[in-house]
Write the structure tokens for this entry.
Amino acid sequence: MHATAFAPIAFLREHAVLAVSVVAAVASMVAVPPDGAYLGYFDWKTLGCLFCVLAVASALRLMGAFDRAARTVIARFGSPRSLALALVLTTAALSCVATNDMALIMMLPLSAATFVGAGQARLIPAVFVLQSLAANLCGMIVPFGNPQNLYLYSYYGLRLGDFLRAMTLPFTVSAIGIIVATWWLAGLTSRKNADASAPAATAPVMPLSRRRLGAYSVLLALTLLAVFRVLPIALAVAAVAATLAVLDRRALAAVDWSLLATFACFFVFAGNLARIPELAAILGPLMDDHGLLVSAGASQIISNVPAAVLLSHFTGAWQPLLVGVNIGGAGTLVGSLASLITLQHFTSVRKVFPATRDLPALSTGRFIGLFSAVNMIFLAGLLLICTITFPW
């Protein structure tokens, strides 16, 4: 009875963004009652591509492919500084393949266990902050690295070359900044006394199934071809769903269905707001004159995914919107949904590793302060460079 009573609260806590998106969608229906135009709100290509990316990434994660690759990289580095850099760069690389939130879900627990085992738990806050930045800012270089990129790539019918030309500068600046910040912060933190925690036992690495790895590689290739509009998205969705239903149904269950539902709610919310003349009269001119700043600023308040869906209805200039919502992933904790995953994992470190409970460096308040400071520096720097460089 007690557990049942608190089940809805636990669900809302775990799916807070979905709950907010549902409320927003329902509230928008008051202004624009449901009609036949609602069916045109949904970008089925984006939803299909997102499903394929999440499903294939889940399958690869469950079979241990990502964990094995990460451990292989990490095993080659010995010093705390080089280990921190390996963890951050591995997170950046995974975000380009498995989306930013999936990269963090895989890498944050591994990072915490690695540093606690090495007696360097004080490095966890800095590395978590930098991994969050790496996932949000390095995944921007590919259309499937961040959910908002998948949407905008499909919504505007972009070509890969145009996409890469728009994102190369902010990606390069972000990558260099993250490497420099990791090297500096990790060196600064690791010079302090090591923690007294004992080394953790290394879990045995299980061999990978070549049959499944081959099948999932084919599914990944089909997904990429669908993202780049070489194959129909319906074909990719059918192939991914049918294959995983046979090889590993857990992967289908592990898909972040709440993210897909959140997107559907955002489509309803944005579609309804776009039909309100007063709002269009305000946002249209703002996006025309200050698209980059408005996109990045809106991301700080409502997060970059809903900002991308909403603002796309008010502008045909996709470049400032695309760049703005991507660099808007830095800044506040709300800037990117993936940042909330980082905070959630950080708050669980002391529960999972009792040896860290007395470390002042692992207080949530200090972590939020460090996160905010580093993210705001990156956001300000990227906005300045992009504003000066781009002609929009």
Summary: Residues 195-202 have pLDDT under 50 and may be disordered. The first helix runs from residue 2 to 14. DSSP finds 19 helices and no strands in the chain.
